[in-house]
Amino acid sequence: MDSQPKKPVEPSGATCKEEIVELPQAQRYRKTFGHLQLKPPEDVREDRWEQAVEDGRRFLAAWSTQAEALGWTSADLFGLAPVPDRPHPSYRRLSRYDLMGLIWLLEGKEVIALTSDSATIRNSLTGNVTVYRKDNKPALGPLGDSLDDFS
Question: What is the pTM for the complete model shown?
Fold first, then answer.
C-alpha cells in the first residue's frame, strides 16, 4: 500500500468526494483505520463517525508508534459493541462504554499521555482531564456496581 494520502475519489454520478488517509507510522492500525474511513459503522450517527475519523487521524499521527509499542490493539482504539441480531429500538451502540475503543470517546478532545493500560484525555475547553482505562472498564458503573469488582 502506498503511504501517501490518496487523491479524492469522485464516484460516478455523485457529487461527494471521499479521501482515505494512510499514515505511514500507523502500520498496526492501517487496515482498521482505512476501513473506518469508508463509511459509518452500523448504528453510529454520521456526525459521530466523522468526528471519530478525525480523532483517529490526529491520534494516530501523534501516538501510533507509542500505542503499538505499549500493546494497544485496533479494538482498544476503534472497537465498538456488536450490534445484536434484533436490537431494541432504544439500543445505542455508543452507549456501551465497556466495549468502546478510545477513539470513540475523544469527541475532539486531546490525548496528552498514554501508558500500556490508560490514556489521559484533556478537554481543551474546560481543562478537565479524564483517564480512559483500556482494561477493567466497569460495564455497570462505578466500583461496587458489579459483583466482578469484588473477585
Answer: 0.74
